[in-house]
Amino acid sequence: MVEIGVYSLHRFADSFCKGCFMSATKSPAECQTKEDVRAEINRIDQALISLFAERHSYVTRMAEIKTDPHEANDPARIEAVIGRVREAALRLDLDEDQAELLWRTLIDWNINYEKGIIIARNRKKTT
Protein backbone atom coordinates (compact mmCIF):
# COMPACT_ATOMS: atom_id res chain seq x y z
CA MET A 1 0.00 0.00 0.00
CA VAL A 2 2.78 2.45 0.85
CA GLU A 3 4.56 1.77 -2.43
CA ILE A 4 1.38 2.54 -4.35
CA GLY A 5 1.14 5.94 -2.66
CA VAL A 6 4.76 6.79 -3.43
CA TYR A 7 4.41 5.51 -6.98
CA SER A 8 1.29 7.59 -7.50
CA LEU A 9 3.00 10.71 -6.17
CA HIS A 10 6.01 10.19 -8.42
CA ARG A 11 3.69 9.56 -11.39
CA PHE A 12 1.84 12.78 -10.58
CA ALA A 13 5.13 14.68 -10.37
CA ASP A 14 6.27 13.31 -13.72
CA SER A 15 3.01 14.23 -15.44
CA PHE A 16 2.22 17.44 -13.57
CA CYS A 17 3.17 19.83 -16.31
CA LYS A 18 4.49 17.86 -19.28
CA GLY A 19 4.82 20.12 -22.27
CA CYS A 20 3.83 23.32 -20.51
CA PHE A 21 7.34 24.66 -20.00
CA MET A 22 10.47 25.05 -22.04
CA SER A 23 13.72 23.37 -21.12
CA ALA A 24 15.57 26.68 -21.41
CA THR A 25 15.14 29.07 -18.52
CA LYS A 26 14.84 32.82 -18.39
CA SER A 27 15.69 35.07 -15.51
CA PRO A 28 12.79 37.17 -14.19
CA ALA A 29 14.28 40.21 -15.94
CA GLU A 30 14.37 38.34 -19.27
CA CYS A 31 10.66 37.56 -19.14
CA GLN A 32 8.86 40.03 -21.37
CA THR A 33 5.30 38.70 -21.24
CA LYS A 34 2.91 37.07 -18.81
CA GLU A 35 3.36 33.87 -20.80
CA ASP A 36 7.13 34.02 -20.28
CA VAL A 37 6.65 34.42 -16.53
CA ARG A 38 4.01 31.66 -16.39
CA ALA A 39 6.27 29.28 -18.31
CA GLU A 40 9.04 29.83 -15.76
CA ILE A 41 6.63 29.42 -12.84
CA ASN A 42 5.39 26.16 -14.41
CA ARG A 43 9.00 24.96 -14.74
CA ILE A 44 9.65 25.77 -11.09
CA ASP A 45 6.38 24.14 -10.01
CA GLN A 46 7.49 20.94 -11.77
CA ALA A 47 10.80 21.04 -9.93
CA LEU A 48 9.06 21.66 -6.61
CA ILE A 49 6.57 18.82 -7.01
CA SER A 50 9.40 16.49 -7.99
CA LEU A 51 11.31 17.51 -4.86
CA PHE A 52 8.20 17.03 -2.72
CA ALA A 53 7.78 13.55 -4.22
CA GLU A 54 11.40 12.73 -3.43
CA ARG A 55 11.00 14.07 0.11
CA HIS A 56 7.81 12.04 0.49
CA SER A 57 9.64 8.82 -0.35
CA TYR A 58 12.04 9.50 2.54
CA VAL A 59 9.14 10.29 4.88
CA THR A 60 7.58 6.97 3.85
CA ARG A 61 10.83 5.17 4.60
CA MET A 62 11.04 6.87 7.99
CA ALA A 63 7.53 5.66 8.78
CA GLU A 64 8.59 2.13 7.87
CA ILE A 65 11.53 2.36 10.29
CA LYS A 66 9.61 3.84 13.23
CA THR A 67 7.67 1.44 15.44
CA ASP A 68 5.46 3.69 17.57
CA PRO A 69 3.11 6.39 16.22
CA HIS A 70 4.36 8.80 18.90
CA GLU A 71 7.77 8.73 17.22
CA ALA A 72 6.27 10.61 14.27
CA ASN A 73 6.20 13.82 16.30
CA ASP A 74 9.72 14.82 17.36
CA PRO A 75 9.55 18.42 18.65
CA ALA A 76 13.34 18.85 18.85
CA ARG A 77 13.75 17.71 15.25
CA ILE A 78 10.88 19.92 14.11
CA GLU A 79 12.38 23.02 15.71
CA ALA A 80 15.81 22.24 14.23
CA VAL A 81 14.26 21.98 10.76
CA ILE A 82 12.28 25.19 11.25
CA GLY A 83 15.43 26.96 12.40
CA ARG A 84 17.26 25.92 9.23
CA VAL A 85 14.29 26.96 7.08
CA ARG A 86 14.12 30.39 8.70
CA GLU A 87 17.88 30.90 8.26
CA ALA A 88 17.68 29.88 4.59
CA ALA A 89 14.69 32.17 4.01
CA LEU A 90 16.60 35.08 5.55
CA ARG A 91 19.65 34.40 3.35
CA LEU A 92 17.40 34.25 0.27
CA ASP A 93 15.50 37.42 1.19
CA LEU A 94 12.21 35.57 1.71
CA ASP A 95 9.63 36.15 4.40
CA GLU A 96 10.77 33.89 7.26
CA ASP A 97 7.29 33.65 8.76
CA GLN A 98 5.78 32.49 5.47
CA ALA A 99 8.56 29.94 4.98
CA GLU A 100 8.01 28.65 8.51
CA LEU A 101 4.26 28.38 7.95
CA LEU A 102 4.80 26.43 4.74
CA TRP A 103 7.23 24.02 6.42
CA ARG A 104 5.09 23.56 9.52
CA THR A 105 2.19 22.64 7.24
CA LEU A 106 4.40 20.15 5.39
CA ILE A 107 5.72 18.73 8.66
CA ASP A 108 2.19 18.39 10.12
CA TRP A 109 1.10 16.53 6.99
CA ASN A 110 4.15 14.25 7.24
CA ILE A 111 3.50 13.53 10.93
CA ASN A 112 -0.08 12.49 10.20
CA TYR A 113 1.06 10.41 7.22
CA GLU A 114 3.74 8.64 9.29
CA LYS A 115 1.31 7.97 12.14
CA GLY A 116 -1.18 6.46 9.71
CA ILE A 117 1.40 4.07 8.28
CA ILE A 118 2.68 3.04 11.71
CA ILE A 119 -0.83 2.53 13.13
CA ALA A 120 -1.92 0.48 10.10
CA ARG A 121 1.19 -1.69 10.31
CA ASN A 122 0.75 -2.21 14.05
CA ARG A 123 -2.91 -3.22 13.53
CA LYS A 124 -1.84 -5.85 11.00
CA LYS A 125 0.58 -7.30 13.55
CA THR A 126 -2.18 -7.73 16.12
CA THR A 127 -4.72 -9.33 13.80
UniProtKB/TrEMBL annotation:
SUPFAM superfamilies on file: Chorismate mutase II
Keyword field: Isomerase
EC number: 5.4.99.5
UniProt-listed Pfam families: CM_2
Record GO biological process: chorismate metabolic process; salicylic acid biosynthetic process
Cited InterPro entries: Chorismate_II_sf, Chorismate_mutase-related, CM_dom_sf, CM_II_prokaryot
SMART domains on file: CM_2 (SM00830)
Domain Chorismate mutase: 28-118
Name used for this protein in its record: chorismate mutase
Molecular function terms, GO-annotated: chorismate mutase activity
Taxonomic lineage from the root: Bacteria, Pseudomonadati, Pseudomonadota, Alphaproteobacteria, Hyphomicrobiales
Keyword Isomerase attributed: yes
